[in-house]
Structure formats: C-alpha cells, structure tokens
Write a structure and sequence with these properties.
34% of the residues lie in helices and 19% in strands. It is α/β, with parallel strands linked by helices. It starts with a strand and ends in a 13-residue tail after the last strand. Its EC number is 1.1.1.271. GO terms for molecular function: GDP-L-fucose synthase activity. It comes from Clostridium neonatale.
C-alpha cells in the first residue's frame, strides 16, 4: 500500500511518515526538498499547481494524508493534481479551530463552526478547506475523511508550547498564561493521532465524515502548568495575562 504524506519535514507530518513506514507501508513525502530522507521524497511547492502536476504525473497512491494544507487553495491544487483512480482515502488534518468559541464542552462534530477570536484566519481558512473537500465528496465521491485534533504534543514538537514551560522552569522565569488560566484545553499525543489515522485507513466504511480527535478529558491552562511542575519537580511563578493588561495575539497553530 502506498501512502503520500504531504510535508514530512516537521513534527506532525514527520511523525506520521515514520509511523506508517514502521508499519510496513511504502511512504512518500511531498515537500520543497527539505527532507533528510530523499529516497521517497517528491520535491515541489504545493502552492504552485504546474509544479505539483509535474511531480505527481503518473503517480498513484492508495492513501493521502494531508498535514500541511491550511487554505482552500492548498487542498484544491492537490485535488486538481492527484490521480484519483487508485485513491481509497484522502485524510485531511484540520483543526478544532474551525469551531466558534461559544460552543459548550465537550464539542461535538455538529457544533457551530465559524469565526473564533482566538484563532481568527487560521480557523476560517481550515473551515473553507473542509467545505471544499466535502463538496468534492458529494459531487465526485472524493474519498475524504477529516480529523480535527486539539493541541498535539510529543517528541519532535517544533511548536514552542510545552518547551516554553520547561524552559521557564529551567531558567526560573515566570510563565505567562492566557487570560486567567481557567480556559479549558484538550491535548492529543502524536502517537494516538497516528493510531487513529491507521484505524481510518483499515476501515473501509469510514468515508465522507469529520471526527474530533483528542483526549476525552479537558484541562485548564493552569492545571496543565501544574502538571508540568509535578513532572519536573520544579516550580516558578505564573503570570496571568488579564492581570497585566497584556494583549494576546491570535493563534496561528
């Protein structure tokens, strides 16, 4: 079975590519040539359609796992360039950022989607990509499955999230948390995401649907930081953004 992983150079896509390679699948990655493993790397800028058509010409895949698509244009170009004759599943890694912030927890897949002041364009762009993909499923039977993970963590995480907490602890610096620290958040380990993708691949009945994927438990920012304290046996001061009139930028990941 051939799998194409879009990306392959950073945390999520790199972890997925390694996972399925270890599982015995023949894995290809598509990126701009930044991968250390060039053996099965297809080199192209996914934003340039003519380059994508050239590199994907006469290539057929059983499964595509699209990790680094952030806009409708990203998924549309790939759709236009893929040979779909052999394609069994196209799995799009979206985000829980597609939901508005007013939904009650736990958020269901049917919950209201749209603008979220915490995520802004990132969430809207992901939602537009989803809508395009579902439209192609309805009109062309494009074998779409969409996953909406929350915060992902694990080895090789390139986002300065848990590393920020640990750096503050090691340097005895205060930790700045959003608002009053009581915002509830949800995590998912990268290995669990990979296992969920595998379940989707081996189950032929899963198609044309979106799933929220994450740990069933929620935790506040404050409690999460306290768990980091416990894990390291270190402690430092917590600063709350709302107490210091700090403007928080919208999320980009």
């Amino acid at each position: 079975m051939n799998i194409l992983v879009m990306g392959g150079t950073k945390f999520v896509s790199k972890s997925i590519a390694k996972y399925f390679s270890d599982e015995g699948y023949k894995v290809y990655t598509l990126n701009r040539g930044n991968s250390l493993d060039n053996k099965n790397t297809l080199k192209a800028d996914r934003h340039i359609e003519k380059n994508m058509k050239k590199v994907l010409d006469n290539k057929k895949f059983d499964y595509v796992i699209d990790v680094n698509a952030y806009t409708q244009n990203d998924v549309e170009i790939l759709y236009n360039c893929l040979d779909k004759s052999k394609l069994k599943k196209y799995i799009f890694i979206s985000s829980s950022a597609v939901y508005t912030e007013n939904n009650r927890l736990p958020i269901k897949e049917s919950a209201t989607k749209g603008f979220n002041s915490q995520w802004k364009d990132y969430g809207i762009n992901k939602l537009e990509a989803e809508e395009f993909l579902f439209s192609k499923y309805k009109t062309d039977k494009y074998p779409v499955v969409i996953l909406r993970p929350p915060y992902l963590y694990g080895p090789m995480n390139n986002l300065y999230r848990e590393s920020y907490i640990f750096d503050c602890l090691l340097n005895c610096d205060p930790i700045l948390v959003p608002s009053d620290g009581q915002t509830k958040i949800q995590f998912l380990h990268i290995d669990d995401l990979c296992a969920q993708i595998k379940e989707i691949i081996i189950n032929d009945e899963i198609i044309g649907i979106a799933f929220n994927v994450g740990n069933k438990e929620y935790i506040t920012f404050e409690k999460w930081i306290e768990k980091c304290f416990e894990a390291t046996n270190l402690k430092t001061k917590i600063l709350y953004a709302n107490q210091y009139n700090i403007n928080e930028n919208s999320r980009v990941h």
